[in-house]
Design brief:
By secondary structure, this protein is mainly alpha-helical. Among the domains are: 86 residues, no CATH class; 104 residues, Up-down Bundle (Receptor-associated Protein), CATH 1.20.81.
Length: 301
């Protein structure tokens, strides 16, 4: 009986979510009435390749359809914030796909665990505790994963800034233009900063303004030091100041901040070492030193 109730609950929630996601995106009755007044060229829907894999023919179209529906349901501000976090994490996802992943981890997996726990005859208390643990992990797990990727990616970009901009300074002072200097960096630098700079230089090559492309790169990464560097380059270019001297000053500031952060981490190290010393190392030392003495005292008495 509990398994049947859980199965009915799962089916009801699934149908409710599908009903919400299957609503037309915006417009309503007005769009339906005006639809006949607009000319729409009939398009041919591409049929799936019968020789493709099962995932390409079935799973991927279903996932794209569900992600589009999730994007249509999400408010604009939430969708924009999710897309910003995804971009800073370096993932090739959309906000709808991320919501779909969270729905699977927070909805499907906990229900499957709940059905398994009910079928094995566990106590209601254990079932509720296990379901709550998997529900919390399903909700906060993707967020922790994305935030961790964002921090690691920003740290990698922040570490590569001084060397990259030193090379830009040397290239500019040697007579290269700013675009040629950045292209020179692409040949020497690897990692997330190289990926973002490659995208920025491609946008500039396609005709986008250098100022907008650089500012967009700073927004995509979310690194404050890179934002200040970009603002300095933009201001120096607009005011006719030597870009090489401006970049040299800014890279010096970044190196100073990196040294200060390293000193801060060094000062925090003794405090962080207290807990492993007290709970792991000191008890082991006491056992190694006092163990033989305790054994000899036991034999003596």
């Amino acid at each position: 009986m509990p398994a049947f109730i859980a199965l009915v609950t799962f089916a009801s929630v699934t149908l409710l979510v599908y009903g919400i996601l299957s609503r037309p995106a915006g417009g309503g009755g007005m769009t339906a009435r005006l639809g006949g007044l607009r000319y729409q060229r009939p398009g041919r829907e591409a049929l799936p390749d019968p020789d493709a894999a099962f995932s390409a023919r079935v799973i991927q179209p279903i996932m794209r359809s569900l992600s589009r529906r999730a994007n249509s349901v999400l408010p604009g501000t939430i969708s924009e914030r999710l897309q910003t976090a995804i971009t800073r994490a370096g993932l090739s996802l959309t906000s709808g796909q991320l919501i779909l992943i969270i729905s699977i981890t927070a909805g499907v997996f906990p229900l499957l665990v709940l059905l398994f726990m009910l079928s094995t005859g566990n106590t209601p208390k254990m079932v509720l505790i296990t379901y709550g643990v998997f529900l919390v992990l399903g909700i906060y797990g993707p967020r922790i994963w994305i935030m961790g990727r964002i921090k690691r990616r920003q740290k990698a970009i922040w570490r590569s800034l001084p060397d990259a901009f030193d090379l830009i300074t040397a290239s500019v002072e040697a007579g290269l233009g700013i675009d040629a200097a950045f292209n020179r960096v692409l040949e020497k630098v690897t990692g997330p900063f190289s990926v973002e700079l490659t995208r920025t230089m491609r946008e500039i090559t396609m005709g986008r303004a250098r100022r907008d492309a650089f500012l967009d790169m700073a927004d995509r990464t979310g690194v404050e030091e890179l934002r200040s560097l970009v603002n300095s380059i933009v201001q120096a270019e607009s005011m006719g100041i030597s870009i090489g001297s401006v970049i040299r000053v800014q890279t010096g500031v970044i190196r100073t901040k990196r040294r200060q952060k390293a000193e801060e981490q060094a000062f925090k190290a003794p405090i962080k070492m207290v807990f492993p010393l007290v709970f792991f190392i000191f008890p082991t030392i006491m056992i190694v030193i006092g163990g033989p003495a305790i054994i000899q005292m036991k034999h003596a008495f």
